[in-house]
Amino acid sequence: MSADVTKVDQAGEPVGGAASGTTPPTPSGPPVGGAASRREGGIAGFLNGPVGRNAGLVLALVLLVIVGIITAGDRFASPENALTILRLGSVIGVVSVGMTFVISGGGIDLSVGAIVALSSVWATTVATQTMAANYHWIVMVIAALVVGAVCGLVNGVLIAYGRMAPFIATLAMLAAARGLAEIIAKRRTQIIRDRGFIEFFGGSVLGIPVLVIMFAIVAVVGWVLLNRTTFGRRTLAIGGNPEAARLAGIRVQRQTMYLYILLGVACGIAAVMIMARTTTGTSTHGTLYELDAIAAVVIGGTLLSGGRGTIVGTVLGVLIFTTLTNVFTLNNLDTSTQAVAKGAIIVAAVLLQQRVSRTRSG
Amino acid sequence: MTNVVKRFPGVVALGGVDLDVQPGEVHCLLGQNGAGKSTLIKVLAGVHEPNEGTIEWAGEPVTLHHPQAAMDLGVATMYQELDLVEGLSVAENIFLGHEPTRFGFSQRTAARREAAALLARLGHPEISPSVEVGTLSAASCQIVSMARALSRDAQLIVMDEPSAVLDAGEVKQLFRVIAEVTGQGVAVVYISHRLEEIREIGDRVTVLKDGKTVATGLDAKTTPTQELIRLMTGRSIEYVFPPKPEVVVDAEPVLRVEGLARAGEFASVTFDVRPGEVVGLAGLVGSGRSEVVETIFGARKATSGTVSVGGKAVRGGSVAAAVAAGIGLCPEERKSQALVLGASLASNITLATLPRFSHGGLLDGSAEVEAAEELLESLDVRPRGVHRESRTLSGGNQQKVVLARWLLRGCKVLLLDEPTRGVDVGARSEIYALIRRLTDEGVAVVVVSSEIPEVLGLSNRVLVLADRTVRHEGPADELDEHAVLDIILKGDAA
């Protein structure tokens, strides 16, 4: 962490110098053009770079931590609280990693919260739990993953082959999946009775909660998938220019469908995690996850229009939001104030992103 | 306007254009594709600002730095792609941007009434002002566009190929309207490829070639056709084409296209290409040439007909199938169809070849970069740098990147749609040389170009398309630019 901070400071040095140099447009000799473009590259260029963008997020996180330490002292700066933050962020984090793929691929998914709810309910029905009791709790996990994948498949088919706007198709899924969850659960909270399930997912390995480990695994796999595989490359290509991707022989429709299935599976995993955390399955799980996930992805630096995605940014975005919630909670501030602060962060991040795309096109 | 120059990065689109238009005249602009007509129109409409030269309006020098400035002066432009909002009504479209208002509320009844009056004046009272534009025919849209120009009290109406989408009766109607507005002192700049139309309604003609005025103020009625064609052709810059590849006459064709057709776009096209041969498709914009290559490539689904490579039929309507069969396409619109602009050169180059660099789905990044670097070097792409974003390159270098994608893949058939559009002179010769290198390796090449000399200079055989059908097929050596234009223009006249 401290290494990152120093990096920011060092890089910040020339930035400041360049900024002050910009004020008078010095009409001096031949290198003006070069100097000007370098100056252009100053602040913007630094922040635009992959390192710079993440450094900005790390900086934001560090500021939040400092605020936390000042206002809440030891209650904030303890290993237990750090794990609390990570545990809190892990569920939405898994969804956000999946969302990064869909958004990088030029889409959007509003139904993630509803899919989480439906998966959790389906995995905790009497029938599923009885089967789990007879065999193994893994049945519940499989149920959640399959439900998530099928919902994603429906989204993907509607969008890729039915040519529906992602916004509309997933809006429909949002309504339908949440409704179906209510029907199945009869609006009741289903308690998980299987001790094995709760002990496994609620436990810790070497002091680290299993939920946090799951988030870490999902994030690492997501990073590799997006940055180091043909799957990831195709995702960025169809998000960046679907027509060019198509004319290069990439099966754009199929790839689009895969992205929604992938996110559906991520929602299934998130459902398992939320079930473990609350020991329940209910149709109210995952409420407003779509907004939290999209917000985390966007402030992380993934382009909402597609073509560029960053898993590291998304993870940092999740951590920023979760830390914010934690700091506010420790200071006994209500959720309304939190919401306002979240809104401000999103606006700031998007404004920064716009500047980035302007410099790129300009 | 005098000596107007417009430069874009890497190309000079207009290199000194003079044009004067009198009140009440129909001034025709003639020129081949790429002669600079569209750029000239955009300068007139205030979309592009000229780098040099002056524009005078009624004797006063003016600068048009914004479309609104041009409209305020009284210049209205009817673009080739109509710029109507489909979801709005006819009346709303006509008054878009200058709605009649009172206390900030739009006066819908007044707008509808005035729109109806304008449409009646144009001889089309049957178009209802309240109907949605999206439901109208192409000809009716043209009339609405015209009504919009009149609603702004335009003194000069620029029409970019208005007749392209109209049938004979509708063209007559359009001419009647043009005659009426010019009778009221409005000037019209009329662009068309159809010489007989120019004869019919034109007063004077200005000919553009390679972004320059080659003749202005010619009499539209009496200047001989041969003279006009001569002015349009004969390039000032002669490109050097590499010697044409020798083709083994009795070799089995690599690509065979039989009876390929697409409803509304082109009718039955049949040809084959042998290994190492270049077949050119000549024709004007809208003749169906791009549609033909895109259909061969599976990007459009054929209504009928077959494509086969090496004797094996290629499943239609699937780009992936065409690519698997060994076909590659460098599409017409480099930026919107070929490149992922925000992605690096390396990933653009390997886009069609990803499986080759993957082991069980994992990409071998360094092998990818290495392959890309090698290609960038051999094609002399500048500035080099595999991680550079492709949007930062000039047109010629971007085109090389697109070519590199297919070179890496190793195609049997390469379809090149406008390979040198927006490409500067130096890069052009390099691309020509590259095409030659490919044919030496036995690749079958299909070249589409608006520039007739380019098609003739590169190809062994040429197909001339006009009005969405093949008008002529024959060896390139037996044709010259005149002959091809003749086939195209006479074909249009039919």
Helix- and strand-based class of chain B? alpha/beta
Distance between the termini of chain B: 35 Å
CATH fold-level name of chain A: ABC transporter involved in vitamin B12 uptake, BtuC
Beta strand count of chain B: 24
Q: At the first level of CATH, what is the class of the largest domain in chain B?
A: Alpha Beta
What characterizes the major β-sheet of chain B?
6 strands, mixed
Helix-strand topology string of chain A? HHHHHHHHEHEEHHHHEHHH
**Mean pLDDT level of chain A:** 84
Q: In which order are the strands of the major sheet of chain B placed?
A: 6-9-10-3-11-12
Strand content of chain B: 15-25%
Oligomer: heterodimer
Q: Can you describe what's shown?
A:
The complex is a heterodimer of chains A (362) and B (494). Chain A has 362 residues and is mainly alpha-helical. In chain A, helix 1 (2-22) packs across helix 3. Chain A is built from 16 helices and four strands. Chain A has a single domain, classed as Orthogonal Bundle (ABC transporter involved in vitamin B12 uptake, BtuC), CATH 1.10.3470. In chain A, strands 1-4 form a two-stranded antiparallel ribbon. In chain A, strand 2 and strand 3 (208-209) form a beta hairpin. The two termini of chain A are 34 Å apart. Chain A is globular. Chain A has helices at residues 2-22, 32-48, 50-72, 79-104, 112-123, 126-134, 138-160, 166-185, 195-202, 210-228, 230-240, 242-247, 252-278, 289-300, 311-330, 335-361; strands at 190-191, 204-205, 208-209, 280-281. Chain B is α/β, with parallel strands linked by helices. Chain B folds into two domains: 2-232, P-loop containing nucleotide triphosphate hydrolases (Rossmann fold, 3-Layer(aba) Sandwich), CATH 3.40.50; 255-493, 3-Layer(aba) Sandwich (Rossmann fold), CATH 3.40.50.300. Chain B is 34% helix and 24% strand. In chain B, the strands form six sheets. A six-stranded mixed sheet of chain B has the order 6-9-10-3-11-12, sandwiched between helices. A six-stranded mixed sheet of chain B has the order 18-21-22-15-23-24, sandwiched between helices. In chain B, strands 2-1-4-5 form a four-stranded antiparallel sheet, with helices on one face. In chain B, a hairpin with a 2-residue loop joins strand 16 and strand 17. Chain B starts with a strand and ends with a helix. The model of chain B has no long low-confidence stretch (mean pLDDT 84). The A-B interface holds A 224, 228-234, 236-237, 240-241, 243-251, 303, 307-308, 360-361 and B 297, 299, 319-320, 322-324, 329, 331, 336-343, 347, 350-352, 354-355, 357-358, 361-363, 365, 389, 391, 405.
